[in-house]
Amino acid sequence: MAKKAPRRTAERILEVTLELFNRFGEPNVSTTLISAELGISPGNLYYHYPAKDELINSLFERYEKALGELLGASEGVRNVEDAWFFLHSLFEIIWEYRFLYRDLNDLLSKNRMLETHFQTVLKDKTRAIRNLLAALSRNSAVTMDAREMEPTADSMVVVLTYWLSFEYVRDPRHALEPDNAQQALMRGAYHVLNLLAPYLESSQRQHLIHLTAAYSPSA
Hints:
By secondary structure, the protein is mostly helical. It has eleven helices and no strands. Helix 4 packs antiparallel against helix 5 and helix 7 packs across helix 8. The longest helix has 27 residues. It is elongated and about 60 Å long. The relative contact order is 0.11.
């Protein structure tokens, strides 16, 4: 059997960096720690990524690409179950790159590229959520005045953006550990989607209750 080709060092560096950033938070991870975790010399790391910001920017570019590929699907949402799946998929991407959200304000204050690009991310998220609301309205899943869509979309994006921070504040020692991922993602999707409850058609509202029963505060 032919041996698998070894992964490129640059790729492996990004994978390990993402794991460390997610586990400990970006400010607490040095390039020395990254090279030690990889078992390579600091010089080898610097050869591929001469500065820590280049690691951060490369990971952000991956996040931005994955997000962009998903957001276009918002126009195809027809009902509350589609919306639940879409939001859960969105939270999965956020979770995969959760260090960005855990340390968001700190990262934006130090990194000009992230500062400008994250503004674009917010605009793209908001546009996607507005498209989702419009699609639900076209399919008679929600009844919503056009004037209500913009503030509702903004509220949904706020929860999307700061949900992991909320989880972290509630339980700093455990909230962002991999074992807690599924529950954190489901709770986030529940709270975002629940903002639509007042506007949902009756059968869609009942279906939402059924879909999210395990994640409601009273469960």
